[in-house]
């Protein structure tokens, strides 16, 4: 575990507590009472780094909760998989090892294809469509998580996914045999269908994976490209806009139930605000990070018509294959999306 980023409290008795308790008590009883007040510390792991906009957003979320509860609920964010590795975050929250955590939704694809719906190529590849898909899917996803005693608090998309390479890509054929970094089932499947060689690599491990030659291309957003300094090992970004995968924040239901009603309310309010703020930040992030890449000499291009056609064909095949796996609930979700 890395050192905690929790701010050091100079005085265990914060000003709001003092105000609430009034001047009736002596300092000694005050310290004692506050020690017994229902102050709750929550550790919150996320796989992503400090400079990432998702991490900035959840830190703000933690600050909002702390402020709204007068310190009653104090969430400490642990970034870059430092507390718990990405693959363990969901189960750690489920088992109560940590009360809250953030992870990419599509990581749960293997346990339930519905969690992968936001990563089907070209099903929802701009923010409007992604928002509609989220509206159509959030209740059913929340229900599935509830079955595991998890509460889905909010979700925020990454910018549209594209392809980073060490050469200009004109057709899909050129990606054959390329060692492609992937991060979920869909990116792996897409790479496979292109004839590339997929390898799963978590974001904090990207520079090493390129440095050691384990990969020589990657599927990700302008955001992660810029955060991992893609220009150190790549030259081209194809803004293919394949899909917008979402991160979600989940809470252990028992830990949630143990909170006071006010703290539960504060948590829900802060989640709602964080979701809105996160979607806006994500939109702004796309252009801002593309500019940073250009400034660092990455050649950014739109996909050629041949590449679009190739990727769309793969997308159709993947949608069909996804529907087969997702069955009736998958069809119901797509119908709800199409009605939005
Ligand atoms: N960044 C994360 C998920 C999607 C994205 O844009 C990653 O590359 O793993």
Description of the structure:
With 340 residues, the protein is an alpha/beta fold. The protein folds into two domains: 15-104 and 127-157 and 246-289, 3-Layer(aba) Sandwich (D-Maltodextrin-Binding Protein, domain 2), CATH 3.40.190.170; 162-242 and 291-339, Bacterial extracellular solute-binding protein, family 7 (D-Maltodextrin-Binding Protein, domain 2, 3-Layer(aba) Sandwich). It has eleven helices and eleven strands. α3 packs antiparallel against α10 (261-295). The N and C termini lie far apart (44 Å). 44% of the residues are buried. The structure holds pyroglutamic acid. Pyroglutamic acid (PCA) binds next to α8.
Write the topology of this structure:
Layout: H1 15-21, H2 27-36, E1 40-45, H3 53-68, E2 73-78, H4 86-95, E3 100-104, H5 127-146, E4 150-157, E5 162-165, E6 179-182, H6 185-193, E7 197-200, H7 206-211, E8 217-220, H8 222-227, E9 236-238, E10 246-252, H9 253-257, H10 261-295, E11 299-301, H11 305-339
Parallel strand pairs: 1-2, 6-7, 6-8, 9-11
Antiparallel strand pairs: 3-10, 4-10, 5-8, 5-9
Helix pairs in contact: 3-10, 5-11, 6-11
This protein binds pyroglutamic acid.
Pyroglutamic acid (PCA) binds at residues 104, 158, 183, 203, 220-221, 223-224, 245.
